[in-house]
Amino acid sequence: MHLFDVYKQWDIEPVRGQGTTLWTADGQEYTDLYGGHAVISVGHCHPRYVAAIQEQAARLGFYSNAVKNSLQAILARKLGQMSGYDDYALFLCNSGAEANENAMKLASFATGREKVLAFAKAFHGRTSGAVSATDNPAIRAPFNATDHVHFVPLNDLAAVEQELTKGCYAAVMVEGIQGVAGIFEPTDDFLQGLRTLCDKTGTLLVADEIQSGYGRTGLFFAHQHAGIRADIVTTAKGMANGLPIGGVLISPAIQSRYGMLGTTFGGNHLACAAAIAVLDIMADEHLVENAARMGDYFRKALSGEKAVKEYRGRGLMIGLQVDPAWAGLRDRLLFEKHYFTGAAGADVIRLLPSLTVTEETAAGFVQAWKELTA
Ligand SMILES: Cc1ncc(COP(=O)(O)O)c(C=O)c1O
Questions:
Q1: CA-based angle 23:29:33, to the nearest 5?
Q2: Bridge-based pairing state of the strands 169-175 and 204-208
Q3: CA 333 to CA 269: how far, in whole Å?
Q4: What are phi and psi for residue 319, nearest 5 degrees?
Q5: Counting beta carbons within 10 angstroms of the beta carbon of residue 246, is it exposed (0 to 12), middle (13 to 18) or buried (19 or more)?
Q6: In what order do the strands lie in the sheet with 342-344?
Q7: Domain boundaries, the chain
Q8: What is the pLDDT of residues 316-363, one digit of tens each?
Q9: Helix 359-373 and helix 287-302, axial crossing angle in degrees, nearest 10
Q10: pLDDT at position 20, please?
Q11: What pLDDT does 8 receive?
């Protein structure tokens, strides 16, 4: 059997990782400023993380949600404390798309309404509802066609108001920062306006923090920079540093009932142990603060650098819009300087490093950039 060929891949196979460093089998070293797409939050193979997984796997890796699992309660308590959403409830699932799927379903259950308002260029995942709320027809199959989702431009409050006053929207779903689109931020005013419009029209505000959350922007969730709270927050990528897990943070105003949501694997022992270790490491090593500090470092060092047309993003969620003439720069960073970075289209280089990234590593990247663009 061969693999279903859906990923355009580099011909590079990392076999070992430590912190922000990866190695291939032949010993070639790479610096990882991509984090496997914003997933690596505490660095590759952090010893405390490895030990937590090893211990849990040796004790009990999985049992279903038919029985008590106190690891879930520990995770919920720590996540509530660290995120400032300690009065919310947590539903655990396995991926970002699944978290958004559950968020939309929950909003629809809670309001009795069927529509979701999403934004131009949004990416919310590839499962049926999530892909319907994703503004990319190329990844939407005919099966996913629906008139339940409507798109309006990001930061266009008048367009939001026009839709929400119709009274048929269960939820507005917004990324804390649009990632896949190429790092585009909702303004603080816009998020505050969304909050007000949602309150006025009985619509639930869903913040998709799957890429922008978990400390990456220098606060636990990116929407918190605007000083607002969402009714539902979705999270995944950084939660367990690579073990599959997703979470839905749910306002106390939304009532649960048995059977309303469910999953076989969600909240399993191994994933919870990994997620708890991630939060403990983040707290003990002050990684949210480091993300803010290192974000400032990257911004100062790279804004105005040759080839950087625009520096976008916050903290360690960075988009470098490059001049079209430098469209091959990402490949050169990889093959000549051995830096993993992300991309959005041909002319946005994305940096999504582990929250543990150091000044020394960042300085090395800036130096490599200077050399390639000299
Ligand atoms: C903002 C956002 N939402 C949802 C998803 C989907 O997450 P997953 O790939 O874990 O289903 C992603 C993945 O890139 C994302 O960036």
A1: 90
A2: parallel
A3: 39
A4: -120, 125
A5: buried
A6: 308-314, 317-322, 348-351, 342-344
A7: 15-42+286-372, 48-284
A8: 999 999 999 998 999 999 999 999 999 998 899 999 999 999 999 999
A9: 20
A10: 98
A11: 93
Residues of the chain scoring pLDDT < 50: none
Of 43, 16, 30, residue with least CA distance to 334: 30
The candidate with the shortest Cα–Cα distance to 72, out of 213, 282, 221, 245, is 245
Q: How far is CA 272 from the centre of its chain?
A: 18
Distance between CA atoms of 295 and 353, rounded to whole angstroms? 10
Q: 15-42+286-372 in CATH: which number? A: 3.90.1150.10
pTM: 0.98
Return d(Cα 129, Cα 127) in angstroms, integer: 6
Within 10 Å of residue 115's Cβ, how many Cβ atoms? 23
Pocket test for ligand 1, best of 124, 178, 206, 233 (most atoms within 8 A of CB): 124
- Ligand 1 nearest-atom number relative to CA 176: 1
Estimate to the nearest angstrom the gap between the alpha carbon of 254 and the chain centroid: 24
Q: What is the pLDDT of residues 190-199, one digit of tens each?
A: 999 999 999 9
Reported CATH class of domain 48-284 = alpha beta
The ligand 1 atom nearest the CA atom of 178 = 1
The two structure tokens encoding residue 206: 């869903």
Beta-carbon neighbour count of residue 124 at 10 Å?
A: 31
Nearest CA to ligand 1 atom 4: 124
Nearest atom, ligand 1, residue 130 CA: 4
